[in-house]
Write a structure and sequence with these properties.
Layout lengths: L2 H32 L10 E6 L6 H13 L7 E5 L7 H10 L17 H12 L9 E7 L8 E9 L5 E6 L9 H9 L12 H4 L2 H11 L3 H4 L4 E6 L7 H18 L6 H9 L2 H7 L2 H4 L7 H4 L9 E6 L5 E6 L1
Parallel strand pairs: 1-5, 1-6, 2-5, 6-7
Antiparallel strand pairs: 3-4, 7-8
GO molecular function: hydrolase activity
Protein name: P-loop containing nucleoside triphosphate hydrolase protein
Keywords: Hydrolase
């Protein structure tokens, strides 16, 4: 199959999901604007988009942006990937060296490997971008090809000028919430749901302390999530939500290698790559719909995501075809 035919197939497969995503954003934008006093220009609607590696969330987000930006909607849309908020290479190195026995910090990906102050600054400035006399906002870019694939932040980012109607933040762990030590210990004892036992051994991969180190870092991300007004979650079929990530990510790598002359990871390297993300899904992923998981006392139990009641769940199949949509 040539690249044009593959692109057309991707468009046709993803179109139903994109249509639902577009309508969800339009509905939320209308409600968002209705809450703004008539004398003020509304702030941009902030939408979180979360989905696992290989699910096509970046492609879906790009098509969502195109649908919103083109007639008849003609909206100004800014897309920010959480990947572009990684620490610079030196920061990632420092984190890995200071946590030599924690595999979750050996490379980018997990909460703790992002520049939280930078992200907070970008979000705050984007919130104010529609105000009179507001300046421009620089969106950082992280180049994953630098330093033999370890990546680094580059200076030539995107500059955004208002007015902006919609800001989309997409990423694999967008909306993940910290949890309690008790819940980490409990889940570490149990088989990983929707994942074949011989595919991944959680107990041999991480310890409670490893997960809690990431959990402590994740607490800093809650300020990011508080900026979100609405949410879209992309999920695999309920019976294989985690195991299918390996299949999707492997397909993604093979497709890339057919285009660039074979440059990329081996199949074993792809599995190792995905392995490092599985604990994030298992221990923190249900935060998208539940917020803080575990803990004691009424105060912690009230820590719910700001987008509850304004969320869209998009379930896709093995070939990323739309299976089901629901609201949460």
């Amino acid at each position: 199959m040539n690249l044009r035919a593959l692109h057309i197939m991707n468009e046709e497969t993803h179109l139903p999901a994109v249509q639902h995503m577009t309508q969800h954003v339009l509905n939320q934008l209308q409600e968002h604007r209705s809450r703004c006093p008539p004398s003020l220009r509304p702030t941009p609607l902030f939408v979180g988009v979360q989905g696992p590696q290989g699910s096509g969330k970046t492609f879906l987000t790009s098509r969502l942006r195109a649908h919103l930006a083109n007639p008849p909607h003609s909206l100004a849309v800014t897309v920010l990937s959480i990947d572009d908020l990684y620490l610079p290479h030196s920061g990632l190195q420092s984190l890995a060296e200071s946590n030599p026995h924690n595999i979750l910090f050996q490379g980018r990906g997990q909460p703790g490997t992002h520049d939280v102050p930078l992200g907070t600054s970008v979000f705050r400035n984007l919130k104010k971008i529609n105000e009179v006399h507001a300046g421009t906002v620089d969106i950082p870019i992280f180049d994953k090809s630098l330093f033999n694939g370890q990546g680094d932040r580059i200076s030539d980012g995107e500059t955004v000028k208002g007015p902006v109607d919609v800001v989309v933040l997409e990423g694999w762990c967008v909306g993940f919430f910290p949890t309690s030590k008790e819940l980490v210990e409990e889940r570490l004892k149990e088989p990983v749901p929707t994942l074949e036992p011989d595919m991944f051994d959680m107990k041999a991969f991480v310890s409670v302390d490893h997960v809690l180190a990431v959990n402590e870092q994740l607490k800093r991300y809650v300020e990011w999530w508080s900026a979100l007004d609405a949410f879209i979650q992309i999920k695999g079929p309920s019976s294989a939500q985690l195991s299918i990530i390996y299949q999707w990510r492997l397909q993604q790598e093979h497709n890339m290698k057919t285009k660039n002359g074979g440059k990329g990871m081996t199949d074993d390297q792809v599995k190792t790559f995905v392995d490092r993300y599985i604990p994030g899904y298992v221990f923190f992923g249900d935060g998208v719909t539940k917020g803080f998981s575990g803990g004691e006392g009424a105060e912690t139990e009230r820590l719910l995501p700001s987008w509850i009641g304004k969320g869209l769940s998009v379930t896709i199949g093995n070939d990323r075809e739309l299976l089901h949509v629901s609201n949460f």
